Amino acid sequence: MKISGGIVTYNNERTIDKCLKTVLEFTKDKGYEFELYVYDNASTDSTLEIIESYPEVKLIKGKDNIGFGKGHNEIIKKVSSDYHFVINPDIYLDMDTIGVLVDYLDRMGHEVGLVTPKILNNDGTEQYLPKYCPTIRYVIISKFPGFHFLRDRYTRKKESFTEPESIEFCTGCFFGASTKYLKMLKGFSKRYFMYLEDTDLSRRVREDGRKIIFYPAATAHHNWQRDNTGSMKGIMRFLKSLVIYFNKWGWEF
Questions:
Q1: DSSP characters over 12-25
Q2: What's the confidence (pLDDT) of residue 208?
Q3: Helices then strands (H, E): number in the chain?
Q4: How many CB atoms lie within 10 A of CB 153?
């Protein structure tokens, strides 16, 4: 069985080494063939040098920063695997997460479109990534004092998942799918530069009648940086993506 992984980078010198090292370590000699691709969005720091120190990685050098989704789409066009994984450059592994999720996808067949593991912080606590699709109430009103409880509801923080669970939203930081299915979907929508392209993909998968599965027995660590609230550029990118998303799928309260 052939499995591929894709990482899109842009100035990720602080996290990319650990990401590459652990992904390659925990996919080695596991009974399947694994290829790792990296699309670099014209990084200006030492990201490229770090990637080039891993000769087994298939590096694609972009001339400009084309964004998250378009970078992954360039990788998806090139791979010829049975299953493909979208991996953030700030992800790292401590188990054969990819193998476990592929076994599940292989058993379930066309019933499942996307599968994602439990995502952990560096200290091992769970990251409560959104498991419902965004609405005005969840992504805007929840920011105001007195309404933070909506964020917990949005991420289903108080719910406990011990078995595979069908969810609405698949985080773009780490997920797997049939490569043939991703190619059929033509990857991520080109309308998003960054943010909500994973939510849009999730909606398209569910519209197609396939499930998105949260698989808690497999884990990945996410060294998360919330740059959408750390800079004006990030905030504007997030808001632009939010408008694109709501205009397409409806301005739900």
A1: -TTTHHHHHHHHHH
A2: 96
A3: 9, 9
A4: 14
Residues composing the chain: 253
Cβ–Cβ under 8 Å, residues 202 and 133: yes
- Residue 208 vs residues 72, 134, 241, 247: alpha-carbon distances, Å: 21, 19, 22, 20
Residues 156 and 128: beta-carbon distance below 8 Å: yes
* Structure tokens, 141: 């009103």
Residue whose C-alpha is closest to residue 123's, from 227, 219, 221: 221
Tell me the two tokens of residue 132.
């419902």
- Chain CA centroid to CA 236, Å: 21
Residue 112 CA to residue 50 CA, distance in Å, equals 35
pLDDT per residue over 182-240, tens digit each? Answer: 999 999 999 988 889 999 999 999 999 999 999 999 999 998 765 545 577 778 888 89
pTM of the full predicted structure? 0.93
Within 8 A by CB and 6+ apart from 198, the residues are 169, 170, 171, 172, 175, 188
Residue 111 has pLDDT above 80, yes or no: yes
Q: Is the pLDDT of residue 104 over 70?
A: yes
Report pLDDT digits (tens) over 69-94: 999 999 999 999 999 999 999 999 99
C-alpha distance from residue 253 to each of 55, 139, 162, 232, 246 (Å) = 49, 10, 30, 25, 10
As a whole number of Å, the CA-based R_g of the chain is 17
* Residue 74: closest CA among 40, 45, 108, 44: 40
Contact yes or no for 215/103 (Cβ under 8 A): no
